[in-house]
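Hi R.,

Here's the chain you asked about this morning:
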Amino acid sequence: MTSKKPHALVLDSWAALAYLQGEPAAEKMGELVADAIERRIPLYMSVINAGEVWYILAREISAATADSAISDIRGWGVEFVDADWPLAQIAADFKSRYKISYADAFTAALAKQKRTHLVTGDKEFRSLGAEVNTVWL
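And here is the predicted structure, written out as tokens:
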């Protein structure tokens, strides 16, 4: 992470899933969310990435678990951001220039649009270099 304090955080599906599934990065992710809530730092997630969380959990566990996870994410105070054309255009630009999934491109696009930090542990984001500020889990 850069030394600059974020004014907001954009959560990647990788980060949310790591927390929800109790993976090694869960503790750090929990601390970030708790700190954001305490300091009133807005938390955002693209609806594209929320959908990614849902389909992964529905496929691996059940639709009910996926529904519960989305409710949990909203309970953390995360605002889901719709994918309008300006956001989609930034995501498409990232996808056209970097080896990154389209869903991940939306995470990066949202962080760029909000001019803030992206939270992830997904190494795919390394290809973006300095395009976005990243908080690594």
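One quick note: The domain at 9-136 is CATH 3.40.50.1010 (Rossmann fold).

Cheers,
M.
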